Fold these 2 entries.
Entry 1:
Amino acid sequence: KAGVTQTPRYLIKTRGQQVTLSCSPISGHRSVSWYQQTPGQGLQFLFEYFSETQRNKGNFPGRFSGRQFSNSRSEMNVSTLELGDSALYLCATQRPGTDTQYFGPGTRLTVL
Amino acid sequence: AQTVTQSQPEMSVQEAETVTLSCTYDTSESDYYLFWYKQPPSRQMILVIRQEAYKQQNATENRFSVNFQKAAKSFSLKISDSQLGDAAMYFCAYRSGETSGSRLTFGEGTQLTVNP
């Protein structure tokens, strides 16, 4: 069974640019959550989508946004990139009726 | 808000020995789930073990077991017969069972080194 896939795996951008990251869940998984991982702040929850609706949101500025499509694939967008946005962005997906999330390999974003 | 604390930034163990990683959490909820995830150098987060708060029996998955002390809000991970492949960053995580959604709250992580 295919796992969670994230594209791209690596990305280099400059300050002020915007970026879009993609997450494709395991078949049958309808919940997609996004996390930011940095050495200083650790793992922080960004937001969660379920059935194309944002179900939860973490404490991040409005520059961070996301969406989910009817096939459960999700994208997150970061506008006006800052140096501090350099991080590993992980998505995690979950099947309805279960309590366990499975993570993708992450997208490493570097902002110069 | 729930918090998760891992007080051991680094731990080391000899191959074939046993090691215990500590985790404490703070919550006012009675229904929740606790997880241990492993993150090797590849950065892929891998589920190690899960525990449902309403189950008194400690979860076990092969060489991995937990000691869940609900009253003390403690959730430690024991790795038996440690192998070189167990070397990784280990994260303890909390998920509410009382609110909708799948949001995980993570601890700071414990870097485990396995010495041959």
Entry 2:
Amino acid sequence: SYELTQPLSVSVALGQTARITCGGNNIGSKNVHWYQQKPGQAPLPVIYRDSKRPSGIPERFSGSNSGNTATLTISRAQAGDEADYYCQVWDSSSVVFGGGTKLTVL
Amino acid sequence: QLHLQESGPGLVKPSETLSLTCTVSGGSISSSTYYWGWIRQPPGKGLEWIGSIYYSGSTYYNVSLKSRVTISVDTSENQFSLNLSSVTAADTAVYYCARQGLGDHVFDYWSQGTLVTVSS
């Protein structure tokens, strides 16, 4: 079965740029979606189809996808961006989630 | 604005069947451009997809849960349901229902989630 690999944690200084990766075999050929989840809340899509932002998501959030790695980039990180982030794809008639990355804003 | 709300018992005994229903409001479950999915999250852990259903009744299930899962849809009530049989403590989780795009499979609307505990 298809697997997505994310780092367990990423730290970023306030105002700097955070990059969260999602690795998978030839993931560049798939649509990758990213979700933000804060404690006690449901996941919220922040990027879909690799790089598109849903309505209401700040331009600070961007995404890219090529080869074996998809990346979520958060520019000018704010304290409110501290959360868990999950990548997700569709493969062989199944939804696959990455294990999640905890973003800490220092 | 689309709204999804789960309902069902918060406590289930081991070996019994977990049953949840998701009621959709603000939109039709019979839309041809969406699936409707169930996702769960054990306490302190990541997201796990359980399965998804189209309004016609066609389903996709997580292979690891397929033998215990049934998802059904009731278009007249604008609801879809999850049955998970032979539960154990490992099935304790927050259960979410969500709308899933037909083409790209993004979950764009989620329920608030409901904690189901498996315990005697």
